[in-house]
Design a protein that fits this description.
The chain is mainly alpha-helical. It has two domains: 2-213, Fic-like fold; 238-313, Winged helix-like DNA-binding domain superfamily/Winged helix DNA-binding domain (Arc Repressor Mutant, subunit A). Helix content is 60%, strand content 6%. A three-stranded antiparallel sheet has the order 3-5-4. Strand 1 and strand 2 form a beta hairpin. The two termini are 27 Å apart. Mean pLDDT is 91; it is low at 319-326. This is Fic family protein. Residues 52-208 form the Fido domain. InterPro entries: Fido (IPR003812), Fido-like_dom_sf (IPR036597), Fido_containing (IPR040198), WH-like_DNA-bd_sf (IPR036388), WH_DNA-bd_sf (IPR036390).
């Protein structure tokens, strides 16, 4: 959401869910954001592959910008752009000219990849400066920022953590002036190409992202602890009428209610969590439906969510459940 928002492209968490869900292939959001959403999902799981060649970078770019390019911005070189491109300010003044021709772009990207894995310098500084180098090369007509931030996220996921990589774009979006000024400070001719201001600015932003991540995780830990304690109290109370698997389903749906997108949980996801077959899991879900603690919100595929009664039982904020759809 935030890496796109930096470029003025906005969409919602529900649209991301549509992009990720295979059963939503008819959704325009699935077609438009599927590849980008899957890239970041893979990044969050710590499975992203750091590129080793300019061709690998082109492959990542194709996924990042899938469905986003206008006809004027389609690549016309062997791998990258054949024409020249300028980065301009609001008044139309040129701030930076990307590398040109394509042969120079290839050499610049090879140097960028080498800097990304430089063993002689602090790895975090190498990751940051390779981000500057990539944006300086500017190998595409459009999508350089989104591709560059994803590449930076790949390195940060290895050097720090996947959650850090996922939260960085939010901080960059919130402090876009600092982020963009870090580039222009290096481009200032009196600076003579010293990358120190850029490295310091990005290190501060990464530090801020780490702090926000810690606060966010602490808040979620508090909510999860409250849900756990509430379920334990219910289990200890006589006459609750719930099976062990029933409690586990409520615990799962309670977490989805606290931290999910509001689109419910699929039957096969619940079955995997319970380590049971789908038909066996369905029997426990039916029991909870009869007690009006959960409800079906989609039939194809089967998705479930807590009802208002279920949320009240678990001490969660009361809200109306989603309307049943097919």
């Amino acid at each position: 959401m935030f890496t796109n928002a930096i470029e003025g492209v906005t969409f919602t968490r529900q649209q991301i869910q549509d992009a990720l869900a295979e059963e939503n292939r008819s959704s325009p959001w699935h077609r438009r954001f599927r590849e980008l959403s899957h890239l970041y999902l893979t990044l969050g799981e710590g499975k992203g592959k750091v590129p080793e060649s300019p061709a690998d970078i082109r492959g990542i770019y194709d996924n990042v910008m899938d469905g986003e390019l206008s006809a004027d911005d389609l690549l016309d070189g062997e791998l990258f752009r054949a024409g020249s491109v300028d980065i301009t300010d609001a008044a139309g003044r040129s701030l930076h000219r990307g590398f040109h021709p394509e042969e120079k772009i290839l050499r610049g990207l090879e140097a960028t990849l080498q800097a990304m894995s430089d063993k002689a310098s602090p790895p975090l500084v190498c990751a940051i400066m390779s981000h500057f180098m990539f944006e300086a090369v500017h190998p595409f007509y459009d999508g350089n920022g989104r591709t560059g931030r994803y590449l930076l996220g790949l390195r940060l996921s290895r050097l720090l953590s996947s959650p850090t990589a996922l939260t960085l774009s939010r901080v960059l979006h919130e402090d876009r002036k600092t982020y963009y000024r870090a580039f222009t400070d290096v481009e200032e001719h009196l600076n003579r190409g010293d990358g120190t201001p850029f490295a310091l600015a990005l290190l501060r932003l990464i530090f801020e992202a780490q702090g926000q991540l810690e606060e966010d995780l602490s808040a979620r830990e508090y909510l999860l602890k409250g849900l756990t304690e509430k379920l334990q109290d219910l289990q200890d109370a006589p006459g609750h009428g719930l099976s062990e698997h029933g409690f586990r389903i409520l615990f799962l749906l309670g977490q989805v209610d606290l931290f999910g997108t509001g689109s419910g949980t699929k039957l096969d996801e619940i079955a995997e969590y319970l380590d049971l077959s789908s038909p066996h899991s369905r029997r426990y879900l039916t029991g909870l439906e009869k007690q009006e603690l959960i409800a079906t919100i989609t039939k194809r595929p089967l998705r479930f969510t807590l009802t208002t009664k279920g949320r009240l039982l678990l001490g969660l904020t009361e809200q109306e459940p989603p309307v049943l759809t097919t």
